[in-house]
Amino acid sequence: MASIRDIAKEAGVSPATVSRVLNQDKKFSVRSTTRQRVMEVVRKLHYDPREHHEMVQSLPHRDREIIVLCSLTSSQETRDLYFATIDEGIHDEAATLAIKIGAFVRFPNPNFDYQIVSKFDGVIIIGTFSERFLNSVYRCNRNLVVVDEYRYFDQFDLVRNNYHAETERALNMLYPQGHRQIAFIGGAINRMEKAGITGEQITDIRTTAYLNWMQIHRLRSKNLTTDWSTHEGYQAMEEILDSNTIPTAVVVASDQLAIGAYRSIQLHHLVIPEDIEVVSFNDSQVASYLVPSLSSVHAPSNEMGRAAVRLLLDRWRNRRTVPWQVVLPSKLVARESTVANN
Fold first, then answer.
1. pLDDT of residue 177
2. N or C: which end of the chain has fewer CB within 10 A?
3. Could you tell me if 234 and 264 are in contact, meaning their C-beta atoms sit under 8 angstroms apart?
């Protein structure tokens, strides 16, 4: 029998969209053409919602309800598709498994009561929170999964990508091309608390990987840590290009920062990649549309969200108490901003 995921793949939509169309969710806004396309695929694949309902009713997790806590505001998530896609993956997998997302809380939220998480069967946290916040949530609900967390915790499940290794891969791609003056633009990782960011920053794994790699190769590092906006990427690149030594390559921690860096490079009448090569992270849609197209590391962010839901499912099914750490592989997509684009 066809599944909701099969229908979603055929129709080119998310499983959550299929689920809401089939359930005739009146609160769900979707184009009539999309709704029609979904129903056409339903008929084509001979999908019987009654069989799906019976299957769901037989699942031991059918009545499970989870809460999602996110360190990003809606506007921040809209600007950063990496986190938006993690969010989408959580919703898609929950819809596929008939798990209800009972609450989605964004921070800062000074009035948040930790005890509320005890009312749910599981908790998924997106983003970087303080140790105190994480431990407070864990004390109220031990079915906890944290997504995009790179510190070590031995109490709860973690889902992350391998950006550290991919930073090294990017540098190893540049090195044989003769690059020795390699700059780095990174973003600040702030710890979120209930009332707002704590002011304590965590060194991003891309920055750590860059500094270690440069030290191993006995090269002088030139790294700037800034905010994650396009403007900050522009300002950081301006500072680098106004220095005495102009780099021949730059690694940038996100596509959003890289857009600003591109603008600065072009205003200095430098040509990418002939004068300076650029490698970025997140492989957002804009990367392939920049001129020249941007080499960027693709992260499986949707699968990271899905994996978080699956980890909760495993805890429920198997009564697992030993925490798991899931590392999903990323991939460098080389394009025109690097010479070695093949």
1. 94
2. C
3. yes
| Nearest-angstrom CA–CA distance, 109 and 142 | 22
Domain membership of residue 280 (yes or no) is yes
CB 260 within 8 A of CB 235: yes
Q: How many domains does the chain have?
A: 2
- Tokens representing residue 182 in the block: 């390699």
Q: Mean pLDDT, consecutive 10-residue segments, the chain of 342 residues?
A: 77 78 66 86 77 51 85 84 91 89 94 96 96 97 96 93 96 96 95 89 94 98 93 97 94 96 97 97 93 96 96 94 95 93 56
Give a three-class secondary structure readout of 252-275: ECCHHHHHHHHHHHHHCCCCCCCC
Could you please report the per-residue DSSP string of 210-267?
HHHHHHHTT---EEEEE-SSHHHHHHHHHHHHTSSS--SEEEES-HHHHHHHHHHHHH
Q: Quick one: DSSP state of residue 307? A: H
What CA–CA distance (Å, rounded) separates 233 from 237? 6
Q: Rounded to whole angstroms, what are the CA distances from 68 to 15, 48, 65?
A: 18, 31, 10
Per the CB < 8 A criterion, the answer to whether 249 and 277 are in contact is yes
- What gap in Å lies between CA 72 and CA 84, rounded to an integer? 10
Q: What is the DSSP secondary-structure string of 36-105?
A: HHHHHHHHHTT--HHHHHHHHHHSTTTT-EEEEEESS-HHHHHH-HHHHHHHHHHHHHHHHTT-EEEEEE
- We report the CATH number of the domain holding residue 183 as 3.40.50.2300
Cα 25 from Cα 225, distance rounded (Å):
45
**Rounded Cα–Cα distance for residues 132 and 125 (Å):** 14
- Structural contact between residues 342 and 334, judged by C-beta atoms closer than 8 angstroms: yes
Q: Is residue 97 part of a domain?
A: no
Q: Apex CA 113: angle with CA 107 and CA 119, to 5°?
A: 110
